[in-house]
Amino acid sequence: MHAWPASEVPALPGKGRDLRIHDTATGGRVTLAPGPVARIYVCGITPYDATHMGHAATYNAFDLVQRVWLDTKRQVHYVQNVTDVDDPLLERAIRDGIDWVGLAERETALFREDMTALRMLPPQHYIGAVEAIPGIVPLVERLRDAGAAYELEGDIYFSVDADPHFGQVSNYTAELMRHLSAERGGDPERPGKKNPLDPMLWMAAREGEPSWDGASLGAGRPGWHIECVAIALDHLGMGFDVQGGGSDLIFPHHEMGASHAQALTGEFPMAKAYVHAGMVALDGEKMSKSRGNLVFVSKLRRDGVDPAAIRLALLSHRYRDDWEWTDQVLQDALERLGRWRAAVSRPDGPSADALVEELREALSDDLDTPTALAAVDRWAALQTAEGGTDDSAPGLVSRAVDALLGVAL
Length: 409
Known about the structure:
By secondary structure, this protein is an alpha/beta fold. The protein is 43% helix and 16% strand.
């Protein structure tokens, strides 16, 4: 599966700072100091309704992580999956009377278009669950053969008791885990499971549903969590720098994925930091496909909204915070974009060297984008009020905003 084209990231004078970021597993900030190549895995979409503002906010956060790393003169190895076979996708295809493969391809193509328009840096490896199946099957077999998985009526389940570190990503109580498992695709009430929290690794073939040859597992399809584990281990290995996604993936997805990987390899942890973006609401409720309260990037683009303004709207909130999308949020972003573009369109202006360092400091501080935007606002206001004599300043501001915030002026 191919990703989307990369926009050029301008080089800035000097060097950026190492990123200090909130780690869900420890509950505090960690300083990430990767080697020459920083490694990041971000969980991708289930392509049955893409791309809403919640998606955009999540991928914007991890785009910023990459930009901070690039500014430190590191390379970035970024991997993202696409869950192109799963119950919600199949249910939507049945509801709409269309082929599930065609639905997945259509929505994935739209997602690529949205990511390109928003200037999100693409992953080096963009892998669909279906194409990952040949690598998933041997991992499930290894877990089963090691006693870390078991069969139940043809389905294969992972035993969470096989990982002594289970629970150390979310640090949730067993009661909360059970509630979230039932809410987010698990089956804690199924009779015969060793532990109600045990997640499915391989679902035996069901009539009328797609299935693949699972070798000794029999025909079927993979569970949700093992998909990301197989892709991450194949392309990044254990101990990569950041596992990212929305906060709704903390449990069960990231918790289970970590346990799968740790049981497979005997190593801990799967990732050095677990980083999660907040949820975006509309009319007081979290945006979600099940509720249907979605604001789509593609719809805004069709309505003529500049993608740079959409990105500024996202940047006006801290990535970890839950926030609400409103018309005013977008209007404020459009006005800010206009002010910034007017400021950099002049032939000279106030020196911007200090602004570049302010942006670097704000972003290295747990991706503090509101502070970064306020710094550019101050420069633009000074430019409007007083101007300046530095003929390199407008160009430097444009390059810095592009390189570090992903906004083309």
